[in-house]
Structures are given as structure tokens and as C-alpha cells.
């Protein structure tokens, strides 16, 4: 259980929209061993009128994880999210892939510039960053680092992002097995980060959303403490709040040596197409 005085922050919201209904819950916790929380997260929603009879709903979910052990980690993660916010506030249409790509590039440039101009922060001010944009019936992800986006659909859980770590790079090159990658010393050694180089290569992922889809966006402080089966089981809770709280409790019971951030969101409706009644149970085969 989470102690009453634990430094945990949580937010949730269930807006009723014309274009889509998305339920979400976000929780962040500094963990049990860290002196500060270097994670940062942001959730935003807006409704834009497209004409007299139609409106489009948009959501942004973002998580940044400052590099552990570096004094500039907390600064970098918050600077990254400020850059994301600035891009979103200036977003006046256009593809979501352009938005998330621009947000990551601007975050990288700003953090790199500050780190280069401050000798105390040189090579000590980097972060991961994953931005998820929901625009009508589409989901677009901009990703760099080792935060993860999980999706549950039709009783199956998948990881949509790819860890930019030494272990995963070796796995992609078929130099180590999945079993070796899970215990490899480079499991958390980043090969890409925001702010480490003047230019960076980010992953852009796009997919169509389905009513009833459940997503988990989280930092490595969460997923490294849980198995895929534990994550899948937690997401079978009846609502997003229960699911998010259960994920964080499991991570804390495991010792939580790192900061923890989790955002769980469920696509309740897209346009006039709603998820089946009791969708959280039915799509996962529960009775």
C-alpha cells in the first residue's frame, strides 16, 4: 500500500466531448530511494470547432524522465514538457506527426543549448520524452528514450514503443536473446536522449484508435518493476483510476528504486462509435 505521507501526485479527468470520450488517470511518485522526482508528465485536452456543426477533440499525453543521478535531470524533464506545451499552444492544425516531431526537436534544442552554456550542467542535462497525440480517431507517438506506451486491444497487450537502450539495440541486431536482454547490464543504458546531441533521431508511430482501447504511458521506473503479465492484469481493473493505482502499488511493493510515472487512458468513444458496454471487461474476456 502507499503510505499516507508518500510524495505521490495524482490527477484524473473524464470530460464529455463531441468528437471522442477518453477517460484517463495520471500518477507520479518519486519512488522509495530517490531524493527527488526527476519524472515529469503533462495531459492536455482541447476541442477545436472545425465548422458550424462539427468539432474535433484532441488530447496530448506526455512523460519525460530526466537521466537518473544527474543534477540536471529534473530540469531537463521539465524543460522538455515546457517545449511540448509551447508547441501544442501554437498548433493551429496540420498533421499530428508534425506536431510531436517538432515538439521533440524543440525540446532537444533548448535543453542542449542550456546544457552547453552552463558548465555545471554540461553532459548532465538530458531526458527521455514520449509524446502521445490523440486527434479524432488517430493516435500519434513521438518517442525517444525508454518510456513505454502499452496498448490493450482484443485481449492482447502490446508495446508500441521501442526502448532506445544498449540492451535493446543489441537485441535488434540479434546479438543477444530476449532472455539475455531482460537482465543485460545495458538494459537502462540509453543510446538516445533529449538534450545529449544537437540533433537527434526520434521515432514517430501512428495508428488508428478503436473504441475500448486501453493505453499505458509510463516511465521505466514503473515498467522495470512489473512483468508484462502484471501490467496486463492491472489494466483489467474496472476503471482507469483503479488500474493506474494498482500499477503504482505493485511497483512500490517491488522496492521502487526509481521515480514512477504512469498515465492510463481508455478510448470510450470515437465520433458516434462507442465501446461495448462494460468494455474494460468484455474486450479482455472477463465475465
Tags for this model:
single chain; 287 residues; alpha+beta; 7-stranded antiparallel sheet; 5-stranded antiparallel sheet; 8 helices; 31% strand; globular; disordered N terminus; disordered C terminus
What does this 3D model show about the protein?
This protein is 28% helix and 31% strand. The protein is of the alpha+beta class and 287 residues long. A hairpin with a 6-residue loop joins strand 1 and strand 2 (20-29). Helix 1 runs antiparallel to helix 2 (96-117). The longest helix has 22 residues, at 96-117.
Number of strands: 12
Into which percentage range does the β-strand content fall?
25-35%
- The helix count comes to 8
Mean of residue pLDDT values? 85
Structural class by sheet pairing and helices: alpha+beta
Low-confidence stretches: 1-6, 277-287
Helical content class: 25-40%
Report the biggest beta sheet as strand number plus sense, adding barrel if it closes: 7 strands, antiparallel
**First CA to last CA: what distance?**
27 Å
CA gyration radius, whole angstroms = 18 Å
